[in-house]
Amino acid sequence: MAKRGAFIVIEGLDRSGKTTQTGRLLEQLEQRDRPVQLFKFPDRTTAIGKMIDGYLRSQSDLDDRAIHLLFSANRWEIASTITNLLASGTTVLADRYAFSGIAFSASKVTAGLTYEWCRSPEIGLPAPDLTVFLDIDPEKARERGGYGDERYEKEEVQKRVRGVFDRIGKEMGSRAGESESGGRWVTVDAGHEKDIVQGIIWRLVEPLMNGVENPLMRLWE
Ligand code: 2DT
């Protein structure tokens, strides 16, 4: 049977070098002539994505549950594209995914959304084969040049978000690094030099580069 493409997610806190590393990984795969496609969540180009963009730039206010569901819908509208690409043998990279969705909403203090509530709309999305979480101490992240102006780009928020990511990682990794429906979750110290982080990521991705045999799973199903 032909192998399907691998689904690789890069998650991380602000200033963890997530976008840089995702770009470098994309380049490395392309240089090896691997069919690969990168998705970035939120995808701000769709109709739903435009609503999310307005919210993040504080141009609009939305109910906490409504925006959470929009972020999730923004993944669901692309889910079948991801599934089809994987089936055709393309490696799919995602810059942020369902885990950001849970981490950012569940860490909103005043909203009072439970972890379980935040997770439920994400259940059933295509499950990554590997999630790399780029971890950085929010204080160190601030020293890297400060946060931007968007909603959530504040040290206090980042600290709480890191706490939720930690919980997700523990749950995903609870079966000896391999969860039944969520693939592997690996935390990488993003405090290292860029080239070192890139090398660590590449060692994790290389075995998946030529595709995977096991069927695509759905998140938390
Ligand atoms: P970027 O800075 O990476 O564009 O992210 N976010 C993201 C959520 O709150 N929920 C989600 O589902 C996703 C994917 C994280 C913009 C901000 O949006 C947050 C930061």
Summarize the structure.
With 221 residues, the chain is of the alpha/beta class.
Jot down its keywords:
single chain; 221 residues; alpha/beta; Rossmann fold; five-stranded parallel β-sheet; 5 strands; 13% strand; globular; binds 3'-deoxythymidine-5'-monophosphate
Please provide a written account of the structure.
- Belongs to the thymidylate kinase family.
- With 221 residues, the protein is α/β, with parallel strands linked by helices.
- The protein has a single domain, classed as Rossmann fold, CATH 3.40.50.300.
- The protein has helices at 18-31, 47-56, 64-87, 98-106, 115-119, 138-143, 155-172, 194-205; strands spanning 7-12, 36-40, 91-95, 130-135, 184-189.
- Helix 1 packs across helix 8 (194-205).
- Residues 41-42, 56, 71, 96, 100-101, 104, 152 line the site of 3'-deoxythymidine-5'-monophosphate (2DT).
